[in-house]
Design brief:
Radius of gyration: 36 Å
Number of strands: 2
Oligomer: single chain
Shape: globular
Largest sheet: 2 strands, antiparallel
Structural class: mainly alpha
Length: about 950
Amino acid sequence: MSEDKTAAEQQFVEAYHMPEGMARHEALERAARTADAVDHLPLGVSCRIALIRSAHDLGRYDLMLAPFAWCGAAEKRDPTAFDEWETHTFDWAHKWIVSGLLADPRFTLDQVWSVITQLGERYQRHGYSMQPVYGAQAQLAEHIGNEEGYREHFARYLAMDRGPMSDCEACVIEDQAGHLIRQGRSAEAVAHAEHQLEKDTGCASQPQGILTTLTPAFVELGDLDRARQAHVVAHRLVRDDQYGGYVDDHLVFCATSGNVQRGIDLLHRQLHRVHHSPSPSQEMHFAAGAAVLLSRVDKPQDFVVPHDGQMEVYSAPRLRELLEAKALEIAERFDRRNGTDAVSRRIREKLASADTPHVPLAVPLRTEVTPEPEEEPTPVADPVELAQDMNHAFDHGDFITGMRLLRSLPRDLDPLLPEGLAARVAARRALAARQSPLHEEHATALDELDAAVARLTAAGEHDFANRYRSRGTAMRAERVGLDAALAEARECVAEADRAGTPYTRVLTRLVVVDLLGELEATDERGELVREALALAEADVPELVSRVRCDVAQHLASIGELDEASAVVADVLAGAPTPGVRFDALRLRLKIETVLGLPAALETAEEFVAAFSTPRGPWTAEAHRQRVASIDRLEVEDRQFEQLREAISAAHELGVPEDVAHACYTLAGGYLKTGRFVEAAEALEEAVRVIESHDVRDDIEVPVRYRLAQACSRLDENEAARTHLETALPLIPDEEPWRRALAYDLLGGVLRRLDRASAGAAAYADAARQWERVPDPAEAAGSWVESAAALPDDERDQCGAALDAAERLLPAMDNEEHRTHLSARIAAIRAFLHFQAGRHAEALERNGVAEELAAQLGDVDWQSFLAQRGARFLLQSGDPVNAEAEARRAAGLVTESTPLQIVGDTANVLEEVLRALDKPVAGDPVLRALNARLQD
């Protein structure tokens, strides 16, 4: 071969291995011209076949025409220039050409019929099934609105047996399901297609094709849970697809099912399609689907659209107008070509899509939260009377009424109030601001409270000033530390004892009790709650139940849970105020959760129901405690609706940590039930919240670790790596077990990304962290994984990792686990010995590994090791013993043996037989193995 042809081949190889995209396509075109210039016909064929596939992957059927025509001429010139794969691809491309011409109104119907005829003649000539031909005819009939022709051709399509040129079984079922849905037979469509979802077809269009097709059928049948799952899984597979279909279907679903914000997020990822869709058909359908979505956008929203190298900013109404006009204009072009109004009619029907019942998704988004219900109207009254009623409600434990009245008192009415009363209103506002999810309100609450206390003091309201000063110490602890806050709270107790009312003497003691909850000062807490109870029983009866809740809290804190439960039950059996009931239900929920009682879920339900209307910070706290209970009880997989409700409440009323924790817990339920896409979506919502707020590391780390787990299961390894590498620096050094878990997961992710050395290093880091815990079993396992991950040329490092693992084996308690790791170590050492040319040592270690595998009862592992022993023998020049070992490996194969092991065993046996000049085709053992592979 000439140097020019060799250089041309190298040019093609470099172009072929470029990332998918127009740059690769253009490089392949240059390689094709070079192949022609040096008269290298087989290379020219390879270039054109690669161009055909590239055009298909880009969705640019217009780019397929030239290489397709070139291949047709080349085939007539010299059919032998095509290898088997290239011939197969060219045969398949005849179907693609039909779809491409049909999707572009610049081509006439005569041209479409011509390529369909050419498709039929070619497939008939090659003896292929005519099913794809009937499918193309049905596709054309449906496109132009020929319903009778469509039914006829589609019936033939279904009746014909599949062949090597037929679409995969899943894609055929997708077509069938779509046909049934168009006929109004949604239940039949679901029954026919759902079994296919359990199979892994390997098709790039599945399962998203079937799931997208079935989503509206599920909605129509009222099966909203399955509609949600179908959309969520399919959406994740298409959301970043730059060229493929189905995007418009999901935009319409989001628009009509009450998930507009999700649709907006998807649209932002796909705005390049506004001016740069692969084909007129895709441009039309995308424009119509996006216009449907934009018709539901009721808030200002900007969309940045790329166009001719520039970025154009559109409002939702303006973009909708553009896209709706575009969809109708392209539809009209199709109809002019077709001589019918079918396409325009379908596009107008899509644009007029009606809303369906709301379909709750995997996780509620921020803009989808339930609006706050209308509160009970506040009676019109004198501001002084309202302020007095508000204070009375708060002082007597009715914080819900108190908050309602406080909200009805705008700040601009304060000058109408007596100074002392106005200062008390200001103090109440400051305490309410502390519970606000808005950071700016929370940040200024203490300063506002201090100002109110100063006003009360100036007005001579010393008892109220001391009471609110005491209440402010909880906020002060966050700013100046617990010790300083406690000192001030104790000063308030002393001041109340010197000159305060009994109410304030009780209240100031309870404040100190709350602050002491952060410490181990159980004796002081006990003494203070006893004093508070005695004072309340003597002089402040309205506070007795509240103090008893604090007594119960103290009993629970010292482990007397039964006694605490009895006190809570007694309090709830009376007629507690809303404030007391809130504290009692919260404490009962915590106690039942610690005890692991199923009744905790019933208490959680009662707690949330009691404080959901009217809504306020108390609603967020009730949901917060329910989420904590569900998480601790590990029943996430049975509380999906409750957790989704908690996320909505957290978005509306809570703080970012509430959203993140509820999403984390919900994702745990999804992971337990194998719903990895939904788990990832829930955790991604948590990450969005975390990245836009100042959220604690101890919240962020578990979220990112769990999200990495979900991404790893979805084979989204680059995303998993990013989340783990973000989380690791946030994990405190004093938590080696958490660092070890993250490094272990990172090791596996890096291996799947073909970064073997980095993966081995991560496993080694995990092992060192496990040694710090200390957990010798986990450490040994991580060292073995590190050794297994190392590339073949790093034998010394691999041996060192195995040495580290072996040193830990004697400290392991679990004998089965120790045996398993010993077997893996022996198996890896066998491979290292063989690499180094120490064949006897390799066989000896391989034998040890097999004996240990036999002790574990792992027959598949035995079979693998036996066939590997046969290969060691064959490559060391001993085919006779290699044959015996290969046949022994074959004898260990069972019905459940993985096909990879079956294939490896068949391969080594065949190589041995050829090395011994023995017949291959008639060998019964080899035939049995090959039959198993074919089955």
